[in-house]
Amino acid sequence: MENARDLLLRPSDEPDVAASVVLFEVAMGNVISAPEPAEAFAASVRNGFAGAAARLGALRREAFDAWRAAGRHADVFVSGWLDDQQFDLEVPGEFLRACGELGLPMTICTND
Known about the structure:
about 110 residues
């Protein structure tokens, strides 16, 4: 994804695999040549959350309520792959607020 505001749709073609909408992705490989790769990575994550918060903030809870009433499930899944690294993930309040207003629970999983 070129821009943190782009969406990547990953439909499911199997009954036990969830479809997903990727709000943003950040890879260390994209910032490894920066003078401070860890800082560039953290800045990319902050920017991604800011864009995702704005996108989610534009949605209406009623749409998600209708989705749930039809027997579907929606949540936010944060995935990270750590290879002998540590990363302090800071999830900004505006993103958490947008998720809360839409009734979206969040799961964070590393090395999935």
